[in-house]
Description:
There is one protein chain. This protein is an alpha+beta fold. The protein has one domain (10-88): 2-Layer Sandwich (Alpha-Beta Plaits), CATH 3.30.70.260. The chain contains 2 helices and 4 strands. Strands 2-3-1-4 form a 4-stranded antiparallel β-sheet, covered by helices on one side. Strand 2 and strand 3 (57-66) form a beta hairpin. Helix 1 (27-38) runs antiparallel to helix 2. The longest helix has 13 residues, at 69-81. The radius of gyration is 13 Å and the shape is elongated.
Amino acid sequence: MMDEQDSLLEFPCEFPLKVMGRSDSGFEATALTIVRRHVPDFDIDAMRCVASREGNYLSVTFVVQATSRSQLDDLYRELTACKDLLMVI
């Protein structure tokens, strides 16, 4: 496992996370709650939603101010464990 010194990222840094889910599931509110749990000062203006062509799916990009690798790892783990999210990139 890589530690902070082995990371290609320099902290703090802006880090985009994209999550995808069904547009009718309301997953974006759940994802926002998770993001705010790990990044309490997350600015809602750094959140962008895009619907799929048919409108069945929604991708939400969160640009977070990451302070550490462990913060990103914990955030990613919680997002991927959420049953409403289909994919986290």
